[in-house]
Amino acid sequence: MKTLNDFDFKDKKALIRVDFNVPLDGNYNVTDATRIEAAKPTIIKILEDGGSCILMSHLGRPKGVQKEFSLKHIVDTVEKIIGVEIKFVSNCIGSIAENAARDLNPGEILLLENLRFHEEEESGDKDFAEKLSRLGDIYVNDAFGTAHRAHASTTIIAQFFPNKKCFGKLLAQEIESINKVMKTGEKPVLAVLGGAKVSSKITIIENILDKVDHLIIGGGMTFTFVKAQGGKIGDSICEDDKMDLALDILKQAKEKNVEVHIPVDVIAADAFDNNANTQIVDVFHIPDGWQGLDAGPQSIKNFHDVVMQCKTILWNGPLGVFEMENFANGTIELGNSIAESTKNGAFSLVGGGDSVAAVKQFGFENKVSYVSTGGGAMLESLEGKTLPGIAAILED
Ligand code: AMP
Fold first, then answer.
1. Looking at ligand 1, which atom is closest to the CA of residue 218?
2. Contact 183, 59 (CB under 8 A)
């Protein structure tokens, strides 16, 4: 696996695919710069080596050239975070980009206009990728968030840099973290899968059963498993057509010696509303007119015990409707348990979809070992898929 350490960037122009797809407010101010901060270590390392950086990214989903999706809106923020002046060109290919890249001196940074102003980016067009490739000497992919897409700048371009391509620090870190859970993790290994639906997590569950010793299933998924086993779930969310699948998962887990833990009690509400009446009930006996919206106190205790015995922990998906204050406790307590276990030496990875939002909202970001930056890319990795952007760097 080639990383920045395999190259000397002195006097070289690094063409870096970053993920600067950041949220902007109505006045085009960046409202969350996490992704820019995440790319900083790669950029700084190349500049310190004596190289220059040509940054390329997409922003949003423009249809052709649309000013509101211009990356010029983020120039000031990037400048502030990296601490170096940012030169900007209004097209990512063509003579204007090629001239700006040619004139770039060591220590300087050039940001290219939104890649998706050209539809060839998303279609993975080879000619477009070749035009981009003219801009740099070494291709660096540091955009985990788009590594699951075979786009021109994330995948197709790599073929124009035989032996001159590598992962940036962020992408390397993401790959290492996934490998720590899926391949090299110290046992016992635990996966906590929450969230709304079995259907969106099924491929992950099936893939992960071969890698883990314990599986906690929580959130809305719980009720499909409970009903499938003959429980009464009241008005709780359930995918009736996935009940056979749920039973099959439990059977597979048994065969593979994976201990499955599901909530034994839940906070049931008489409406899907933060101010609904609530009661703690046995998960197998939820009264009609009531729905389980969070893990109950005994479940939280049980999960804590499991989390504390595990040395490698993957967390994907909340244990309840955490967006509502009164149903966030299970998710918060799980975060506390994972933080404590991490403090005791466990490796913990949080990633995919909503879990990152929950972790940030409740301030667990610095209390777990790693928070993934890529929602879809992380989910596909956990499903066992080889991401095209990663494969393209690994090929010669
Ligand atoms: P996902 O994107 O699959 O990780 O699902 C996250 C969503 O699941 C969040 O928006 C939660 O509100 C929702 N969720 C978690 N637990 C429940 C539950 N018991 N009932 C309904 N929705 C839930």
1. 16
2. no
Give me the pLDDT at residue 358, please.
Answer: 83
Q: Can you give the pTM of this predicted structure?
A: 0.90
**Cα-to-centroid distance, 220 and ligand 1 (Å):** 6
Spatial distance between the Cα atoms of 53 and 212, rounded to a whole number of angstroms = 40
Fold for the domain defined by 174-382: Rossmann fold (3.40.50)
Nearest to 170 by CA among 9, 36, 314, 75: 36
Q: Give residue for tokens 């539809």.
A: 119
C-beta of 354 in contact with ligand 1 (< 6 A): yes
Of all protein residues, whose CA lies closest to atom 17 belonging to ligand 1? Answer: 220
pLDDT tens track for 33-54 = 989 999 999 999 999 999 999 9
Whether 174-382 and 4-167 are alike in CATH topology: the answer is yes
CA distances from 342 to 61, 305, 364, 393 (A): 38, 14, 11, 32
Domain boundaries, the chain: 4-167, 174-382
Give the catalytic positions in this structure: 35, 197, 353, 376
Atom of ligand 1 nearest to the CA of 200: 3
* Residue 280 amino acid letter: I
CA-closest candidate to residue 375, choices 118, 147, 65, 33 = 147
Alpha-carbon distance of 388 to 20, in angstroms, equals 19
Q: Write the DSSP string, 31-91.
A: S--HHHHHHHHHHHHHHHHT-EEEEE---S--SSS-GGG-GGGGHHHHHHHH-S-EEEES-
Residue of the CA atom closest to atom 12 of ligand 1 = 321
**Best probe residue, ligand 1, of 199, 274, 280, 321 (max atoms within 8 Å of C-beta):** 321
Domain 4-167 carries which CATH code? 3.40.50.1260
> Is the distance from the beta carbon of residue 196 to the nearest atom of ligand 1 less than 6 Å?
yes
CA angle 178, 182, 186 (to 5 degrees): 100
User: Nearest to residue 226, comparing CAs of 209, 210, 212, 239?
Assistant: 239
Distance 349 CA to ligand 1 centre (A): 19
- Write out residues in the chain with pLDDT < 50, as ranges: none
DSSP-based three-state secondary structure for 163: coil
